[in-house]
Design goal:
The chain contains 11 helices and 11 strands. By secondary structure, it is an alpha/beta fold. The protein has one domain: Aldolase class I (TIM Barrel), CATH 3.20.20. Helix 1 links the parallel strand 2 and strand 3. It starts with 6 loop residues before the first strand and ends with a strand.
């Protein structure tokens, strides 16, 4: 048993979606905009700092910056931004930029992936989240996100970061158009990457949200979600933590997920815009998170991005 102490963790964090301008235009995404769209944006540094300041004032420790693949934002933009974030907010873990964003920055800046990761790390990037994995099978990726990086490029960024001593996480978005065998292939590829030197601290499966998307259709059922979650815990015995996605599943299903292999509820997410753009707008405060864990019979604990315990709360 991997977590016999019955502790369930969470982190106080904020997603800052610094731009919604994106050239890949994935059919499953309701967040992206063309540069010419009236509601297209790139946040200013001061807007970003204001959001981080609010996070810190609420006891937050994790910043997750993710945005569209905007080729006008080159490496210098992120270096200057990350350096100032680290100077102004040293207590915050900068857990930002999906592999697809890293590849976009590298391409726009004329750099290799290794050069890009190294420069971002030196500027203040602490760890890399596993966004943009969707399904790590190129046939599926070619169907729902043909302009996005292939699974091997996703893997290359993660192994490169791990080789430089950076922690990472892995995700899976399922319920769009993949087959059951694609889900299994995804899980085994994550497992093999971890064995090959990966630094995944957690795995987060979540379901496709069809609202306001070009792809449309329906999403996976709650039963299917729990089956995939349980299978993830069995297959990924080399990854310490499995995270329940209350953002897409809601609080009650996340509570049930704690009995199907999940030991972490992710972040309180002071702000989140990507999934919300698809019409999924669950929200939860720290107090609500603690109460949710307690009422399921587990010990609530606030953690850092690296899964060190910040504070425990009695049952």
């Amino acid at each position: 048993m991997m977590h016999p102490e019955k502790r369930v963790t969470f982190v106080i964090d904020r997603n800052v979606n610094y731009t919604n301008i994106c050239e890949t235009k994935c059919s499953f995404c309701a967040f992206y905009r063309d540069k010419s769209a009236e509601d297209a944006y790139v946040l200013t540094r001061e807007e970003i700092f204001c959001k981080i300041d609010e996070l810190v004032r609420q006891g937050g420790t994790q910043l997750l910056m993710q945005g569209g693949l905007n080729p006008e934002l080159k490496i210098e933009f992120f270096e200057a931004l990350f350096r100032e974030i680290k100077t102004r907010f040293p207590v915050v873990q900068n857990h930002s930029l999906s592999p697809a964003e890293v590849v976009c920055i590298a391409s726009a800046s004329g750099l290799s992936v290794a050069e890009t990761v190294s420069r971002l790390k030196n500027a203040g990037l602490d760890s890399i989240p596993g966004g943009g994995a969707e399904i790590l099978v190129d046939e599926v990726r070619g169907s729902i996100s043909p302009k996005k990086i292939g699974w091997r490029q996703w893997a290359d960024v993660m192994l490169t970061a791990a080789g430089m001593g950076m922690l990472t996480t892995a995700t899976m978005m399922f319920g769009s158009c993949e087959k059951p065998e694609d889900i299994v292939e995804h899980l085994f590829r994550i497992r093999e990457l971890q064995d090959a030197g990966g630094s995944f601290t957690a795995f987060i499966p979540w379901t496709y949200q069809p609202g306001n998307t070009e792809l449309g259709g329906t999403t996976a059922s709650g039963v299917e979600y729990l089956k995939v979650l349980a299978l993830s815990r069995i297959v990924l015995d080399n990854i310490p933590n499995i995270q329940a996605s209350w953002v897409t599943q809601g609080a009650k299903m996340a509570q049930v997920a704690l009995f199907f292999g999940a030991n972490d509820l992710g972040g309180t997410m002071l702000e989140e815009n990507v999934v919300a753009a698809a019409g999924c707008s669950f929200r939860m405060s720290s107090d609500e998170m603690i109460a949710l864990i307690r009422s399921a019979g587990f010990l609530p604990a606030q953690r850092s991005t690296t899964y060190s315990i910040v504070r425990e709360f009695s049952v």
